[in-house]
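Reviewer 2 asked us to include a model.

Predict the structure of this chain.
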Amino acid sequence: MCVRQNVAVADILRALLESRSAFLADVDMAPEAAGRLLVRSDLTGTMQLYEHTSWGGLRPLTDLPDPVGAALYVPGRRHAVIQVDATGDEHHQLYLVDLDRRADGPVVAPSDLRALTAAPAFGHHLAGAAPSGDEIAYVSNRRNGVDFDLWVCTLASGEHRAVYTGGGWCQPSSGYSPDGRYVTVIKPGNRPLDEDLLIVDVRTGDHRIVLPHPDEAAQVGSAAWVGPTELCFTSNVGSDRSVLARHDLLTGETTTLGTSGDWDVTVVASPDGRVLLVIENQEGANRLRLLDARTCQDLGDVPLPEAGVVDAAHIAPPKLDRNGSRIYFSLSTPRQAGDVWVFERGEPGARRLTSSPAPIDPSSLAALDVTHTAAFDGERIPFFVLAPARMHPAPPVVVIVHGGPESQATQAFNPLAQAFVARGYGVVIPNVRGSTGYGKRYASLDDRTLRLDSVRDLAAIHAWLGDAGFDQERAALCGASYGGYMVLAGLAFQPELWAAGVDVVGISDLVTFLEHTSDYRRAHREREYGSLVDDRAFLERASPLRNADAMHAPLFVIHGRNDPRVPLSEAEQLVARLRERGVPCELAVYDDEGHGLARLANRIDAYTRAASFLDAVLSPPRP
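Predicted model (structure tokens):
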């Protein structure tokens, strides 16, 4: 890697963390809107809301103390609805933003906005805005603190009405049907990686499940409406990979539109229902294909300027304009943090709409390679590799494990990985068994009592390091959330392999985690990890804290005080145990953060300290 600006190696991490990003939130579909977009950007250091126009660029709408988690236009009105929590507690509240009144500058306090919800003990997540502009839909656990029900709010009166209270953790899907009669949500089933597509009539509360699968754990994805009573979706019911299908609400008939291929897919539609955009997940990068919604005729690919990600946990899916002639999308790549692009059909390539500041020239950053290795049982483990410019003598290496576990390491921007490479480290980013993106069989290989098999995959990665030219004696683990659990599990169950660890909001004890996590999280996570009633003995055996006496590698721990998912006590109890034994261990706690670090100042402080900690332990060579 060659950094072309005059940036000292010691300052590279700060510079990379200061790389800003912009992500698409919504597209104004009004005929007179001329491509107006809502964009979330961290130009101020946290994700705030902006409006982008072709004549004025980005105009700031909010500069709130906390990040804006999501935003939607209210159709036919110059308003937007935003979702904001407080200091990372994930009890999001919904607010109405007057887009024209903000011409005098961004709003700086929630009290300056019209609050649509005011129940700070509960979470509220946007699930759609009615085509009429009269109401919005959201999911919330305000009824009992556990189940996320579907609610609607009439904007004129402020009246709230629960329209589905069937239990479970309903999650936003693709919003309202074209005529405003239905709202779709995703409802997890009773098994890991088991999801139903639920269609709710907002007038009557009647609901139906699209493609029920009572005898199989499978996922039915979000609806892409192609008419008032017709929708397309993707599903892996009856197959290992997801396929495209169509459902008719009037007849109840479901028709498969494509066979299972090598990759999982998702789908979105143009508002007029004529064009489908199919998003393929190819080794953690996306390919975009356009189809005629009626005939499934191939209308060509959407060319991306560089391999990367357009749809992920922190990146909203692409959106098509009314007739599908323009495709708006966010793109994050291994070397660029993220910006908003548009592709106009008939043009040779996509056009960049936002240009977020990047203190380091992206072309000078490390490229990403995809490779695989065999695990203990012959399973093929995929992973990404970023290598420093100098490989002799053998450099130290950091293995970065993703969270989830029902998630995937993707080919998106990772400033920490790029910074480690700039400092002379190699970086390996695995998708151990249990990761999504490689079929439901692979994703199920770590369920419940198979948990430690994914930890054994780390040993396979470690065995590969030497042949690849990395120093196996100076190999560290790094990860957040479930990735933090994997860090601690690696240090506890494979102490002879790992020289150091960086744990961010990780689980140290699966039993205490399930006992103390938020009530709504416990009901969901027991499906994946095992239940306190039925699987307690295994949960104890798989908990790093219970094997802490074997841990001797230096450890740096980062946690948010307000974390509702993995309580701070998970970090505190492990750090106390290690310090009792004299194991080098540092704990950085941030009072205004939750499950992760949302504020730039905190990220810079935490990760520069963690990197210096690893430097002291592993002594990387000068790049």
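The mean pLDDT is 92. Residues 434 and 587 are 29 Å apart (CA to CA). We have added this to the supplementary material.
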